[in-house]
Amino acid sequence: MAIEKRWKILEADAVKAAALQQALTIHPSLCSILVQRGIETFEEAKAYFRPRMAELHSPWLMKDMEKAVDRILAAVGVEEKILVFGDYDVDGTTAVASMYQFLHKFHQPLDFYIPHRYREGYGVSKAGIDFAHENGFTLIISLDCGIKSADLIRYAAGLGIDFIVCDHHLPDEAIPPAVAILNPKQVDCSYPFKELCGCGVGFKLMCALAERMELPPETAYDHLDLLATAIAADIVPMYGENRILAFHGLIKANLQPNFGIKALATLSGVVKSLHITSLVFMIAPRVNAAGRMDDARKAVQMFVAETETEALHFAEQLHSDNSDRKEADKSITEEALQTIRANEAWLNRKSTLVYQPHWHKGVVGIVASRLIEHFYRPTIVLTRSGDYVAGSARSVPGFNLYEAIHACREHLLGYGGHFAAAGMTLETGQVDAFREKFESVVSSTIEPRLLIPEIVIDAVISLKDIRPSIYSILCQMEPFGPENLRPIFLARRLLNTGYSKIVKEEHIRFSLKQDQVTLTGIGFGMAAKFSLLEQGSPVDVVFTIDENEWNDTKTLQMRVIDFRASE
C-alpha cells in the first residue's frame, strides 16, 4: 500500500519575485522559484543560468595551499616517488584518477592506491602506508580521506613518508601531522566555498600547481567530467563552485568524455546527452559497484586508460559488478521485507533493524534505503563480518541518526557516520538488545511528522502555463542537485478526461484537463490510487515537467509524483 505523503508548498517574497520578473520577463512562478533559491537580481540570474569558470575562487585562498604546492614541486624536482591515495567510492576514485593523470604529465615516478573496502576499511590504511614504504614512496597525496587519520599519518611520518591531505569531511579535534591539509571545512581555513567534494579539493590543488608551473589553466580542466561525476555522486549542494564545475563538467562529458565515462555510458544504454541524472543513476552505481562487490582499483584503471578498448575492458568488469550488486540488493531487500512482515510486532515500530549473517555487506546500505521506501522510518541492516556483526543505517530527513546510534553505544564495538547515514560493528549476541534500544531511542525522540514523507512543492501552476518556453528555462536551471532540485509543481482541481489508464499493472498513464487545457502524464508505481481518478472528482496533482518523445514528436508531459482528491 502506498505511503501517504505530506505536501509542503514553498513561498517566495512577493516583492522580490515581482522585481525579478520585471527584470527577466519570464513566467512569475519561475521567478518565485529563483527567489526561493537566493537569486534576486538580474546579475545573480545571469551568473546562475550562465555559470563561468572565471567565477571560481583562487585556489590560494585555501589554507596550506602554498605548503602543498611547494612540497609537490620539491618532489618533482628530485624525482621523488609520489603515491596518490584515495577512497573506494566515486568521489575517491575520480579524485585519484584526475590527480594521477594531471601529475603524470610532468612527473613519472608515480602510482596510485585504493584501499580494499573489506580488508582495509575506509580511508587511509596501514596496509597502504606499508605498501608505500616497501616500494620507496616518500610522499602520499590522499584524496577524499585523511582528515581523521592522525595516528596513521603519524605512523607514516615515522617511516619517512610525508602526507598531503585533500579532504572535505569534518575534521576532528586532533588534526593529522601532515605537511599540508587542504580542507575548506577546517575552522581556520578562509576558503569562501565550504561544500567542495574530495575530487573538488584535489581540483583546486591541480589549479594551483598549474598556475605555479605556468601551465595553461586548461591543464587542470582536462578531467572536469570526472569531477562532475564526483559532485553528482557525493550529493554535495549544487550551488556556488559545485554548480559551475558540474555545469562545465557535463559539457566535457558530452563533447570529449573520459574513455571510462564513455564506455560506461555505452554499457548503460545512454543514447542521448549525459545529464546529472545520467551520472547519478547510470555512471556512479557502476563505479561504486567495483568497491562494493570486488576491488575499486579497476575503477581508477578504467578512468586512466589511454585507449577506448582498454577503458571498455575495465568498464565491462564494473558493469558486471553492478549486475551482481543489483541481484544481491534485490534478493536481500525481498528477504528483509518478508522478515519484517512475518514479525507482526515490528510492523508498527518507529524503526527497523534486520539481520541475517549471509547478506552481502557491500549492499546493506542500499538495502536500508530500499526498506525506507516501504517502511518510512530510520533503518539499520546488519550482516556477519568475520567474527562480528556489521552494518549500515539510513535515516529519514530531519532525524539525527548519528545521535540515536550514539545513545545505543553500550551495545556497540564501534560506530561512525553523520546525520543521515551511519555504520556500526557489534558482537553477535548484542543484535537483539541493540534492536530494542534503538527502537526505544527512536520512538522517544522522533517527531511523528518525520515518519510521514514530505514532498516540497516549489510553485502552484495552471496547465495553460505549461508551455515549451517554461520547459526551456527549466532545462537551463540544470544541473540539478541538493539546494537546486528539479522544480516540483502543483496543479489544482484537474479532471480525468476518461482516457487515464493503468499500464503494466503498476503505473498510471494520466490524461487530465483543467478548464479547456488537457495534458498527459505518467505516474510510476501509482496504480493503487487509480480509483481516485475513476471517481470523476477533481484531483490536485504534484509533478515535474518532462518531455515525452514518440515517433520523433516531442510533447510536454507531467511526471506525476503524487495526487489526491481536491478539497
SSE blueprint and pairings:
Elements: E1 6-9, H1 14-24, H2 28-36, H3 42-49, H4 65-77, E2 82-86, H5 90-104, E3 110-113, H6 126-134, E4 139-143, H7 150-158, E5 162-166, E6 180-182, H8 198-212, H9 218-221, H10 224-233, H11 240-255, H12 259-268, H13 276-293, H14 297-303, H15 308-342, H16 344-347, E7 352-355, H17 364-374, E8 379-385, E9 388-394, H18 401-406, E10 414-417, E11 421-426, H19 431-445, E12 454-457, E13 459-460, H20 468-476, E14 489-496, E15 501-503, E16 507-514, E17 517-523, H21 530-534, E18 539-550, E19 553-565
Parallel strand pairs: 1-12, 2-3, 2-4, 4-5, 5-6, 7-8, 13-14, 17-19
Antiparallel strand pairs: 8-9, 9-11, 10-11, 14-16, 14-18, 15-16, 16-17, 18-19
Helix pairs in contact: 1-2, 4-8, 5-8, 5-10, 5-14, 8-10, 10-11, 10-13, 12-13, 12-15, 13-15, 14-15, 15-17
Offer a quick outline of the entry.
The protein is an alpha/beta fold and 567 residues long. It contains 21 helices and 19 strands. The protein folds into 3 domains: 6-50 and 455-565, OB fold (Dihydrolipoamide Acetyltransferase, E2P), CATH 2.40.50.460; 59-320, inorganic pyrophosphatase (n-terminal core); 343-451, Roll (Diaminopimelate Epimerase, Chain A, domain 1).
